[in-house]
Amino acid sequence: MTRTPDLRPDFLWGASTSPHQIEGNNTGSDWWRMEHQSQGHLELSGDALDSYHRFGEDMRLLADAGLNAYRFGIEWARIEPEPGQFSRAELAHYRRMIDTARDLGLEPVVTLHHFSSPRWFVDEGGWTSPTAVERFSRYVEHACTILQDVNWVCTINEPNILALMSGMSTAVEAGVDINLGAGMRMPTPSTEIGEALVRAHRAAVDVVREHTTAKVGWTVAQQALVPAPGSEELYAELKWGWEGLYHHGTRGDDFLGVQSYTSQLVDEKGIVPAPESPDNTLTGWAYRPDALGIALRDAWTATEGLPLLVTENGIATTDDTRRIAYTTEALGCLYDAVADGIDVRGYLHWSALDNFEWGHWAPTFGLIAVDRETFERTPKPSLAWLGGVARKGGALDAE
Ligand code: BGC
User: Fold this and answer.
1) Is residue 398 part of a domain?
2) Closest ligand 1 atom, CA of 180?
3) CA distance linking residue 293 with residue 305, whole number of Å
4) How many angstroms does the Cα of residue 5 sit away from the middle of ligand 1?
5) Domain membership of residue 98 as a residue range
6) What are 323-342's pLDDT values in tens digits?
7) How far is the CA of 252 from the centre of ligand 1 (A)?
8) Cα 348 to ligand 1 centroid, rounded to whole Å
9) Are residues 150 and 214 in contact, defined by beta-carbon separation less than 8 angstroms?
10) Which of 72, 237, 249, 298 qualifies as a cystine partner to 198, CB 3.0-4.6 A?
């Protein structure tokens, strides 16, 4: 049986990446420094996938498979290596990426900040510094010189996770293993940093609007939290700290980027880590393709009907058949949401490539495998499969 959804004709079908995870040698960033200070707790990004030089090949593989969109980021630490010193060459590099995407028929979805910041920005006090909004806006203004004709701009990736991560460099210096995938009770993201990120986002939206015609928004890591009976009050509190603040921060945006991987239960003590199970993914998360449906519905309700773009969804696994099974089910949930009237503009899979998973190389999310010595790219069957789904307007062969 084939299921054909009723999607918009301009629905985006693509894959996502972020600069620090694929480019290599992002030496001016806080993450590079943190990796080197971690005393072995974090693996090094190093050359990563050398996508800084090989982005054309990466994009061609996506386009040849049948996809029509590519979400990638531009790296602040490269564009502004010292405060106020902007690199025209780096801006030109990212402009070439935009042009290459377009030439290949891929709609560029450009992220301005994806977890990594220039070292100097962090040294100045990071997001809660009194200068943060001005610093970020100035960077965004320079970024806009290459974005005039880009249609989709994401300001800050997963501000909720960024708020959680911002305490990390201190943790790393103290020798703590910060593997985000570990099945432990996670602290709630800092509201102080979250509110600072909302201010930075709002300022960035104004700058992007002033200089471009892009649709602008940010992307939130949707937790798909579900309350255990009797835990509704704590659930509401945690939902605000994890998502509500960031949904509220979208007021006035053009869209919200939805990022979803798993769903978690909230009991009387908080978010319950995924119990050990052979079904868990390589990041230790429960196998929950249905999370995307919960995420879309939560985001739609919380933003009172903002258009949604799935900017990340995927699974860390070495078994590509499982990736296809996960994505098939996730897409089915997306189609159900669309059938219920939720305005979903596209689906961008995480990730295009097996990339640097923030201190760890083992969790492989990619549609394309990469040999990290030769940098040779090998598309997995899931890439051709997703491209095929895209070509068929989303039609899924269901059992
Ligand atoms: C991030 C990605 C990350 C992915 C899988 C999201 O939190 O935006 O950078 O690799 O999830 O963990």
Assistant:
1) no
2) 12
3) 15
4) 27
5) 11-388
6) 999 999 999 999 999 999 99
7) 25
8) 13
9) yes
10) 249
Q: Is 59 contained in some domain?
A: yes
| Closest listed residue to residue 135, CA positions, set 96, 174, 83 | 83
The alpha-carbon radius of gyration of the chain (Å, integer) is 20
CA neighbours closer than 13 Å in the CB half-sphere of residue 73:
29
Within-domain flag for 34:
yes
Please tell me if the CB atom of residue 219 comes closer than 6 angstroms to any atom of ligand 1: no
Per the CB < 8 A criterion, the answer to whether 390 and 7 are in contact is no
Instruction: Report d(CA 84, CA 256) in Å as an integer.
Output: 30
pLDDT tens digits along 172-206: 656 655 555 445 677 889 999 999 999 999 999 99
Pocket test for ligand 1, best of 18, 179, 281, 350 (most atoms within 8 A of CB): 350
Contact, 349 vs 313, CB < 8 A?
Answer: yes
Domain assignment present for residue 393? The answer is: no
For residue 215, the CA-to-ligand 1 centroid distance in Å is 22
- Taking CA 310 as the corner, what is the angle to CA 312 and CA 98, rounded to the nearest 5 degrees? 75
For the entire predicted model, the pTM comes to: 0.96
Residue nearest to atom 5 of ligand 1 (CA): 357
| 3-state SS, residue 170 | helix
Ligand 1 atom nearest to CA at 358: 10
Cis-peptide into 116, omega within 30 deg: no
Query: Given the CA of residue 18, which atom of ligand 1 is nearest to it?
Result: 9
Give the CATH number of the domain where residue 279 resides: 3.20.20.80
Could you read off the pLDDT of 247-305 as tens digits, one per residue?
999 999 999 999 999 999 999 999 999 999 999 999 999 999 999 999 999 999 999 99
Is 354 touching ligand 1 by the criterion CB < 6 Å?
no
- Domain count for the chain, please give it: 1
